[in-house]
Amino acid sequence: MIRNFAQKALLSFFFVAQVAVALRVAPLPLAHRVQQAETVFVGKLVNKVVQGEWVQAELLVEEPMKNAVLNRMVKVVWRSEIDGMPIYDVAEGVRGIAILSDQLDGRYWLRADKFEEVKRRNEIAALITASKATNR
User: Fold this and answer.
1) CATH number for the domain including 49?
2) pTM here?
3) Which pLDDT does position 25 carry in this prediction?
């Protein structure tokens, strides 16, 4: 009986811990991310350099959308794996919509929730317009 209780308690703890982790790493809604972003633009990933679990690269601004300058290079960094387990990566030359706000040593963090597919361009542009209208 004690063994069953201990197993149930351990499973309950594991479930609660997993839910807490999922809530912490789940991306914020797109509208919130766009509103809070320092800069938003359509860009292409270039100059990718892998250094162990960390990747540094630049995004070439192809279409400024919010606080970005055409053809400027924006430095980004991300962690591609933790203890050999892959978590996120982007191939050089990939285009996406950068929604950037937080930085580490002069480079913006890049993750899946910060580099959206280009097909969402119109949706993101509408969110930027709506955000400008409500912030007046």
Assistant:
1) 2.40.50.120
2) 0.77
3) 56
